[in-house]
């Protein structure tokens, strides 16, 4: 067999609330065993989409298939998917063992078998022997793992996760990212993970869908979404980016010359931007794509400008400086940890430079 | 000094409650008990003894009425719970905002009129020449007038109607605090409606169920008006019997003994109920 049915596929899914469209013609496929993230700002319709997959909401139109079988009209308790809720929704009136065994009890599995499988799954998520504890006796990260175990014990085709790390503190969140990814690899189950945190999506996913106003703006592997954003929204939402408004002055094949409102000339290479001369555009530049030096360097180099450091934001390996050029336009620049920038101070004069093919260009909206 | 002052304040604040407890609850009950163990041996001559209690156990009418009152009160409590739970669930979980407030208020409307008027309402509906009887005759479902008053079912209807609010309010409060995502998680994990009710909703609502049941049981057991009006003179309700002893027979001694037994009965049933449910409460909530 060369063709595999994907574990989950959505075809032209739409969800309307009264006159408000929360999910707008969304189509995607998630292959078996992969980690798929839906990334988007709050209120863009992620939870609505996930709840449709779980069966708590029915789509206005479109189709939803799990392992090739349409799920339209199938109630949530009959779908081969499980969901980890935003606030986990562990049952406070049951102990951990009963929580994890809940689904098996519903299926009528024999008691000793339930006990064995619950112990087994708890051991696999790294929590052996907690079955007798109460929910409130566990830490945040442990509850997280119990919530996953409670779903995974049912061996679902697809596991849905709704911003499960949102309630954790930063340190634990960093740790759980790695752990979730490891758990997914270990169970080899398809995960659909929704989040508004781009770093969670980038670190864990095989594929990311970037969502805005109910639509998918781009679907692709993390590297592609980060390095080759298809729309201005994706470029701005995923990762840090400097945003420069400019007008196209000249188009010469893939090479464009743009002029900012302050009159600075920019050179950019964008083979498929479709921009015309005179059109207004937005230029997106990653902080790490901008070079920094104390000397002007060769003449004739593109996009070099002199500026003044207005802020040094030290954050270990993620340190950056804000450089303001003569016209007052500020750029955020990643601070290299090597070389002689350690004594960079507010007010220092520096030169910024970036290669024309590092910029992403989009037609300005409106 | 400060602590003395605050102590004084504390006792001053406590005084009305203590006074109320002492004057209206403890003293009358002591009096009741003292009277109940008095036996009349001649005109204006009394002796202490347990004769009144012996009378109670020797006279089948008394202890049968006693048992009947207890059983019917328990049945009324169970019926109120069965009827009140879906109402409370609907108000707490399936409505929001204004609809919720409106429904809640509608539960209270009957309580804006006195119990007497409320009970008369039922009499108008149920009596031989009443609304239901006439309607049935008009529809040709029955030949002659039907009497629906003066039986146990009528008493039950009245008791449930009188006390359902006291079941619905605590249930709505506890069900309101049940997170919807717990119910959804139950469905998501393959639970049926019945399993979710049994394993998630009821354990969560247990405190509300227990407090609602205690209040309704107490109200039913101590109800005088409803059994007399809807059940008739021979309704055989224990409060009616106590009333007869005090007012009709002037036998305060026996009346007191019966009153004291009613107090013991309600305490025992509530204690038993608490004991039974707390066992499960301790197990399910487990947060002493
Ligand atoms: N039941 C509902 N009725 C009406 N509007 C809703 C309902 N659920 C969600 N919405 C709206 O749909 C939009 C998307 O919500 P949601 O899917 O929760 O977003 P996200 O999870 O991405 O933050 C929001 O604007 C929200 O107000
Ligand atoms: Mg959400």
From TrEMBL, chain A:
PROSITE patterns: ABC_TRANSPORTER_1, ABC_TRANSPORTER_2. GO terms for cellular component: ATP-binding cassette (ABC) transporter complex. Residues 8-238 form the ABC transporter domain. One of its GO terms (biological process) is quaternary ammonium group transport. InterPro entries: AAA+_ATPase, ABC_SmlMolc_Importer, ABC_transporter-like_ATP-bd, ABC_transporter-like_CS, Mo/tungstate-bd_C_term_dom, P-loop_NTPase, Transp-assoc_OB_typ2. Keywords: ATP-binding, Nucleotide-binding, Transport. Pfam families: ABC_tran, TOBE_2. GO terms for molecular function: ATP binding; ATP hydrolysis activity; transmembrane transporter activity. This is ABC transporter ATP-binding protein.
From TrEMBL, chain B:
Residues 66-273 form the ABC transmembrane type-1 domain. It is a multi-pass membrane protein. The chain crosses the membrane at residues 12-37, 70-91, 103-125, 153-172, 208-230, 250-274. GO terms for biological process: transmembrane transport. It comes from the Bacteria. Keywords: Cell membrane, Membrane, Transmembrane, Transmembrane helix, Transport. Its main location: membrane. One of its GO terms (cellular component) is plasma membrane. It is found in: Cell membrane. Belongs to the binding-protein-dependent transport system permease family. CysTW subfamily. This is ABC transporter permease. It comes from Thalassococcus profundi.
